[in-house]
From TrEMBL:
This is Bifunctional glutamine synthetase adenylyltransferase/adenylyl-removing enzyme. The keyword Cell membrane does not apply. The gene is glnE. Residues 359-505, 870-1011 form the PII-uridylyltransferase/Glutamine-synthetase adenylyltransferase domain. Involved in the regulation of glutamine synthetase GlnA, a key enzyme in the process to assimilate ammonia. When cellular nitrogen levels are high, the C-terminal adenylyl transferase (AT) inactivates GlnA by covalent transfer of an adenylyl group from ATP to specific tyrosine residue of GlnA, thus reducing its activity. Conversely, when nitrogen levels are low, the N-terminal adenylyl removase (AR) activates GlnA by removing the adenylyl group by phosphorolysis, increasing its activity.
Amino acid sequence: MNAPRTARDRRPARAPARLGLTDPDAGRRLADLGWWDGDDAVPAAALVVWALARAADPDLALVAVERLREALDDEAWDELDRALRTDQGLRGRLFGVLGGSTALGEHLVGQPERWRMLRTTTAPGRVFDPSRLPTADDRRRTHLDAVGAKPDDAVPAATVTGHAAVELLRLAWRDDVLLLAATDLQAVCEPELPILPVDVVCTQLADLAAAGLEASLAVARAEVGPERAGDHRLGVIGMGKCGGRELNYVSDIDVIFVAEGAVDSATRVAAAMMRVATEAFLEVDANLRPEGRSGQLVRTLEGHVSYYRRWARTWEFQALLKARPVAGDLDLGREYCDALAPMVWSAADRDDFVADVRAMRRRVEDHIRHEHADRELKLGRGGLRDVEFAVQLLQLVHGRGDESLRGQNTLETLAALAEGGYVGRDDAANLAASYRFLRMLEHRVQLQKLRRTHLFPSDDDTAGLRWLARAAKLRADGRRDAVGVLQAERSRTTVRVRRLHEKLFYRPLLESVARVPGEQLVLTEESATKRLAALGWSSPSGALKHVAALTSGTSRAARIQRALMPVLLDRLGTTADPDHGLLAYRKVSEALADTPWFLALLRDEGLAADRLCYVLGTSRWVAEMMPRSPEVLRMLGGDGPSAELVARDPAEVAKSLRAAVGRHADPRSAGNVARSLRRVELLRIACADLLGLTDVPHVCAALSSVWVAVLQAALDAAERERVGDGPRPAKIAIIGMGRLGGAELGYGSDADVVAVCEPAEGVSDQEATTYARGVVEAVTTALGEPSPDPPLEVDTKLRPEGRTGALVRTLSSYADYLRRWAATWERQALLRARPVAGDAELGERFSEMIAPYRYPSEGLPEEQAMEIRRMKARVDAERLPRGADRALHTKLGIGGLADVEWTVQLLQLQHAGRLPALRTTSTLEALDALRDAELLSADDTDALAAGWTVATRVRGVATLVRGKATDQLPRSGRELAAIASALGYPEDDPGACIDEYRRVTRHARAVVDEAFSAV
């Protein structure tokens, strides 16, 4: 049994914990290396221990040192041990790389003599000197020498080929990466040494890639054979991060090949070069070439020019911003870049530029896995790609007339944009700092295992976060530990970058037009106009006038508008109609100029500002109405099911509307109040609809409820005007027909009604109908007053005898008419009849009176069924507007509303007499009843319900987008893009909306063709 350990015995196990070592046996292991004496570090090795303790992962570094000792003989280990005790630079570089990269630690263990590469060979300065790193030419010579090629030859060819050449290139690559990474991580172990600038690291890695490509090309020439290698010229164009000299430690090397001479031979050499380079160090990717993977690997200069002139998309010109000759025939590469440059710098003039820009902006966020969204350093919101995209877009817009902006490097171009006055200097500096920080984190997570990754450690990965914080040289700040500092700095950085569009695109515009002190900006009106045009504004000059009107002056409102405007312009710029949206925003601002809560709401409630911009820029209907009912803005800030935008009870809304209107005796005044309150409710419903916060049945029910409340309020007012508080000569009931009766109204629907009355005791039928007619006429006149709001059309043409018949009939007269004269179509119309206003008891008796006619107990005679089918055929043939596309007409088109409703109503007429569940005015409820009664299969009812729902939804959204009632889904254009976006389809693929609409309605029509004919 072992004797108890004394306090002195336990010290070696505890003391190293203060150094960040978690292994309880670390003290003994350090002692085995000769660096620990049981109480503390050996005096001569104290600096070694403390340098190791500062490594990103001291435990990992210690394990690697032990393995390195095992790989070295005693003499070599003694040499390393002495060097570590005396060479501060070696300590920093060795422990930095061993604690920061398991992959490079493995490389050192496999090639233990390589540690000597990390020794200080010149006087170590405390500030990094870039001249200590190899130049691009040095790297090229090193790699060519590795495969036996002569660097000074015009066309170097290797003397080593095959697997041996790949191994030599891999070793040369790892050696160079080891030296660079050690220099990069040195500052982690040396507190007084600053972190190596990320710009320098990226440039070195790009030069290293170029050298590797040149050496791989030399091997490829040798493998293909000198006779083929000499019959052509081949230039290798670096693209992406390689071309921009901003490469990562682990990244694809994007290239394009251009040749002169024998293209077949050049293609063989290029293919061999890609294979060798990919096997030796990093994957070489030529997918940015014309036509991508399916295109020729190698083209002549003329072939490239012809393709880009005729076929290239905007994103391809954006990719060419990074083009730079990196290997092979550099003169031919420069000819390539010079030939394509004019097309690159005129790309912003192309007709499809705006659409492509919008697609590119969405692509920034779309190419990210949902589960990684919060951890992506590259593709996530506020990530590296955001900055790169913004800089490239500004290059395309302003580089046409300013050659200083035509660089390949993101940070250099950002500085040039600031120097040229296109971006504020502070904004540029902040974004550059954010970019450098994110790239540094990206480099660290890639170095750990030399794997291609851009993921920040997850919140539950404590060890990973701690390692990254130390690798980034972040320390506790008194309030937070190093991990807390890392998380806070990353969050702050991404939030700052998320505003890059407003910072880069819109704030300079604001400072140009508002005449407020800028940061030495020189953005002219012409430049500002070009920028807005590139971002999707159809009338840039008009937009600038609106911005100037909103932001000029020294008032508090102008100051808040200046703070808000970049955010609002950015959000509006992503909508379908930013110009009209900005005009509407100006009108809203002017309408609420004296209202203190308006700007404060937008400033403090980001959700409200986002939603306002979206609905104003998407819907002309909302944009026209919002300035007249700006109080709806208060509802835009709430979120969740309890938010006022979606949680208002239609019954409560109707009660409030009737109470407000009830305070006005004059029907015209009451009508004005009803219209005003209706407008607020319509706006609320429309905003919730556009924002995807409600569904079709709720929208239809809410719109119908508003109409019912308006009718009831107007009817009350008209009766008060006629008789005051005295006795009424007759009871009046307003019966909703059509969509009003079915509670299926849309934004542009009329209110189809019929009116019935019943005389009071002692009043003749004629006196009663005269009184009722006067009341109903007053209602239709008051509601029909000209107004900029959506019209309140009360349509009575479904009454007996149509337009020539009496406006109001007594209940007994109505019953007599139905008994004697009712046509089949009138029986069908009664299926949607529902009392909506007036005397409830009279309305109920009307429903009982018409029941035998709409729900015949014996079913529908076959001749009447045939009559309905003939009427439907006549409607199909005659009612479709001239020029309308039947496949895209929501009401009368294939599988549209009429198809589904006629089928449902025919089945109701046939079976509702014996099936009470079918006695409903609702189309969807009737479909459920038809399924439950097994009159239609579940698949068929689902198809009909889907057709009806999608047609109703498309019809409503199209009306909101266009600003007026419409039944037609457009085939193309901005309106289709807006409708598709509001329906949840990608704006860059509005055709998907049409394809889905046609698919759903085609399935519905297939059921109609079978069921309607079979009944």
